[in-house]
Amino acid sequence: MTRTNFRDELVHVSALQEYVYCPRRYYYQRYHDQIATPYELVDGRSKHAAQSRRGGWTRERYFRSDTLGLHGKIDLVESDRGSLTPIERKRAESGDYYPSDEVQIAAYCLLLEEAIGEPVNVGYIYLYSTDERHAIHITEEHRDAVSKIVSRIQSMSVDSIPPFTDNPNKCNGCSAREYCMPAETAQLEPERAQGTGWEDHA
Question: Which domains does the chain have, with CATH numbers?
């Protein structure tokens, strides 16, 4: 494999968050481009744009790493007493962040760490809804999770659709639902719903 082809296989950091939330949803997004841009994403982008103009303190920085198999743009890299810390901003109407958000900020920490050649063991998740930011201390579990998810995404193929999520509540309002059709599939092909939260809907 050439170096150019290797770069083409880099995983965007946002894909990790999508995959952790629901691999099946990410599949449709990646291979079929069948997901409309949700309101939350549009609203989040507008907030990012507004924040980037606030006093010039926000600088969106792009990082990439062939070693990590990752690339992405960090919302804000904060410098405090010589230490660099990535900050990821979330709309978060629930007032909380999710495990998928932790994986995302961990990935940004790893990208920044490689770029500066120094350990980056803390990242922040800022929530617009509460105007608070939460420190995420990056553990070996976070690092392992990023590596494993990158490998899983890189090994995906259009011929292999991931199973249903084991939390049907995630399907409420999901923009991929009309393509995923979990309830219909659970009824018509109950064997495909075995071991998931959808088997009770068969």
Answer: 3-157 (3.90.320.10), 163-202 (no CATH)
